[in-house]
Batch of 4 targets.
Target 1
Amino acid sequence: MPPPTAGSAPPRHPLAVLGGDVTVRVADGRLLPYANLDVAATAPCAVVAADAVTRMLPTYASVHRGAGALSQRCTLAYERARASVARFVGCRPGDQVVFTRNSTDALNLLAHAVPAGTTVLTFVGEHHANLLPWRRAVRLPLPRTPDEAVAAVDEALRRHGPALVAVTATSNVTGEVWPVAGIAQVAHRYGARVVVDAAQLAAHGPVRMAALGADYVVLSGHKLYAPFGAGVLAGRADWLDAAEPYLRGGGASAHVAVDGTVRWTGGPARHEAGTPNLAGAVALAAVCDTLTTTGWAEVTRHERWLLDRLDAGLAGVHRLALFGAGHPRTGIISFTVPGLESAEVARRLADEFGIGVRDGLFCAHPLTRHLLAAAAPAAAAPATAVRASIGAGTTAEHVDRLVAAVAQIAGR
Ligand code: PMP
């Protein structure tokens, strides 16, 4: 099948990543370069992130807890990392950046801080991280179009009092871009707030709070080429300052009396009790700074080139059911091979072709089950889907190998 895009190499991505030279042995004994097509789950480590952590390690010491020179230096590095993240997401004056473990942790923190009596509106197609933490939740049905999503929020807000709308920027199942700005415009008309789950957007396009209309954003370092276990909740300070600390302990407490009475600190430290994750923050800041400097044009060109090639390749494979193709989206495509369980497809891609993909329901069970049911009559539909995802480090050869492998598997 002819490649749909000119040339044999995509435009350059501004982030170099580690792991491009990793090889794996496949079933017939050959050693193949590993084709990591599961970057939506966890992205490879950016060289700038690894370098920043390596540079910091010889002076590694406690953050916010010591008078020594190294402790001072590490405290500065940690707070500079917070400022880098704030620049990356376009925080407004007075907004807070709280470091968390990941997006799940950040959404649970916000759920903990939502004032009593606030209704949380989500769509049933959200990732479980944005579906399960909310206590007083109204789950809107899957919209068929972006306009329908905006109208559903409008309609629901008419019936509810104070509200928070919790919506993803891009789907982790299909990569589809959600009409977040339109939803936020409607939400703000009702005085509601909006939290944007940018876990899947952050590595693929700008996460700018003003442009998204977000009151809060969450993201995960490990999906943004910055492993080491840091995530972020950024946004308005008032709910966070008014909430009980998310974690209780040192760092969050300004004064503790003998009888146990506590005066808690304000600011991000209120929700960051315990020794913070300096390596995670430093790694994340290095990637944020790089992307803030380079902008997104190269990322978009790189991804578009590869995604067009992947879409065209998979569209040419007989009988495949594709989810998300044809819609504006980031670098994800999910599919099923009729008559074959997706776990079997993923296993063969790994064992025979050295390709890493994800199979399952992608922690978005309602959405993935809906897509599966819509693609095939219940009896014929595989129970789960396969997801391929691309990013920095993905090459044309990875994409071509996947297309050829899927064609071979589907053909038998
Ligand atoms: N939201 C979306 C859209 C995601 O794809 C994910 C991760 N798959 C999460 C939230 C949760 O991210 P984490 O596992 O890093 O907490």
Target 2
Amino acid sequence: MAKILVVEDEEKIARFIELELQHEGYETDKAADGRTGLEMAESGGYDLMLLDIMLPQLNGLEVLRRLRRTSNMPVIMLTARDAVMDKVSGLDMGADDYITKPFAIEELLARIRVTLRKGGSKREEGESALSACGVVMNVAAHSVTCRGQEIALTNKEFSLLQTLLENKNIVLSRDTLLTRVWSYDYIGETNVVDVYVRYLRQKIDDMFGIRLIQTVRGVGYVIKDEMP
Ligand code: CA
């Protein structure tokens, strides 16, 4: 059975989560501050970490940022109600999911099951995964997901997104995108790029409430690690 690390400074909540997890058959450990949590996580041996954001010593986002230098252990963030920025930052920094406090224990258990399943397959995918803003592309499997939900893309949409993700944080002009994605000297209008960016925004941004592809006026498009 999976071993879960609970990093939460509120003793009552931590104890409650531990009891419920143990009841489900998980092994658990807990840490009451960020520094201890990070050390325990880095020592390995855990299949998943539940990570509160407001923690003494190191906050949850900082714990996550440091952990991600060396580990892709699945992490579910525990966030305060309506802390939208925390959720966005957490996903940007590589959290697998988040749950808003107060939560129903059944929902937490469901998310743990999903994340553990996903985490297993993510490790097998290895290097071929590209990601930004919570969107994960597995080139080998030709799949794109956001928060674990599959996004169906056409071949051209997929290539365009792949090119932007492979050049993350670099602004690509319409001409560059045309050459790389359509791979021939496209006679006619470069606005085919704009059209396909619009398709991607409809399928990803509009569906998941994020801003993945940013327009750089007069230049082109870019996907950044952080949303504007
Ligand atoms: Ca807390």
Target 3
Amino acid sequence: ALPEIEKQGFGDLLDKVYQTGEPEFGYEILAKIDKNKDGNLVEGFYNFVYQPIFDLNKNVEGISVFGFEVTEQVKSREQIDKLYNEVQNSNAQLQNFASIASHDLQAPLRTITSYTQLLFKYSKDKFEPNELEFIDFIQNASKRMQELITNLLEYSKIGIEKNFYISHDLNEIMKIVLSDLQPLINENNVTVSCTDLPCLKTDKIQIIRLFQNIITNSIKYRSSNNPVITISAKKENDYYLFSILDNGIGINEKYYDKIFEIFQRLETDKNVEGTGIGLANCKKIVEQHGGKIWVESVEGEGSTFYFQLPV
Ligand code: ADP
């Protein structure tokens, strides 16, 4: 017997099976069925299959209909969709927040910086040496805060800004990166070598930023030896694996994940300037391109940063 279905279109389906003689299936229907056989109709989602039954002349003489209940599956799917939307929303809100907050923080900071400068310029002679030192502290802290805000702004923009994925010759991109870094390279007697790089669909500005961050780190976290940096790329299945090898101070294995988190710096580098955002940016950029990034290192010998970009 047919279940009592409270749904329009059910009859149309039966007609269709009668006419075509083909089975129909995969229909998820909200139906009320006396599933406990106690006279009460219980609402639930059912997946129905309509199978034609043929007489000896191969005419459809009836249709067997059976359904299996998928209420739980439908409910959990709805729950997943709901959670997914919530995560998307809160992510967007968070990015907006970081972007607006860092932007708005800049104005009061500029006021602090410029008035401290004026104070120093016009009232220098009235201050005791230790008071001048206090002003110096304020100026240094403001400068540092300015750096943090600028970097935070940059970080929050990745993901909000529209990306332009166009095919780029990464050899050309590397030329730009190395030429931008030329002063730092010369100053530190760095030897850089690079194998032939592929052409890939990438966002040029982001990829420049990615290479620049990693190579700059290889120079910043150098050992007493002159830095030697080797960049290479090789195709592995459906992605290219890039590696940037240095002979710097290296990273302890327990910090392999931590260094990619925002504002995370290691104790070893108190003397090296930085805000701990560079590698967080790199992670975001690589992930936006559909790849992943990680590091392997031997402390005291050097590090290799790896990242994948899809072909
Ligand atoms: P920053 O350089 O501003 O501190 P990053 O996010 O670029 O921030 O790097 C995070 C931390 O990872 C650095 O503070 C440093 O301790 C470590 N690190 C990054 N690159 C290297 C490297 N090539 N060799 C050794 N340590 C590194």
Target 4
Amino acid sequence: MDISLKSPSEIEKMRLVGDLTAKVLEMIKPYVVAGVTTSELDDRMLEYIEKDLKAESADLGYQGYPRATCISVNEVVCHGIPSEHQKLHDGDIVNIDVTVRKDRYHGDSSCMYMVGNVAPRAKELCRCAQESMYAAIKTVRPGSNLADIGDAIQRVADRYRFSIVRDYCGHGIGAGFHEEPQVLHYRNDYDLLLEEGMCFTIEPMINAGTWKCRTNRKDGWTVTTADKQPSAQYEHTLLVIKGGCEVLTLRKDENFPRIITHS
Ligand code: MF3
Ligand code: CO
Ligand code: CO
């Protein structure tokens, strides 16, 4: 397997694009309200990425993907295509997933937004997804095993009695959008020791009901839960550093450290 270790100059680019990615998710927050269409949100983010950040959306045109971001509402697990026919409603839980490219390097992050009054169970689902991602991030350091990530996520999901999507995983990231390794979000016996300079995402998708998913046959992208119960996801891009890791896509609204070191 060929997992790239980033050089100091590559790390600088990853830090920069990671910050830009976080900024997109911060910028859009006040606009995620009842009545807005997901297409309007996508237009606003694309304009911000291109005009303000002088960067590109890596999603746009990726394997034919038609829009700049993925916006996944309620039972949509991932790859929701922004649409002028889809308005947000009170009580919706919304994942926005953005991948920014700048100077050839990629930052990939997503988070949940709640529209108005959200049902307690849906809130709990979002909390579980975020908590499981944070628990997984805390395992990341040189010498830890990639499989510790799935283990940490599984512990949190089991405690909440929610299920973990198995069809999609995190991924190495850098000059490539999706690089090796694959980062599994459930308990697994993938044996890979982490090293300083690795960059990858952790992006657990947590379902309220079954973990099973369906892909829309007409658009080829939209993934929903098989039982139409809601799904939630959070994603960060990480860099393995001496003694721990750095969250390259950390936002200001998060109550979590940018740099986690152990011992
Ligand atoms: N951002 C997604 C990920 O986390 C990938 C989206 S690909 C797209 O890996 F084409 F659907 F945009
Ligand atoms: Co990703
Ligand atoms: Co993503």
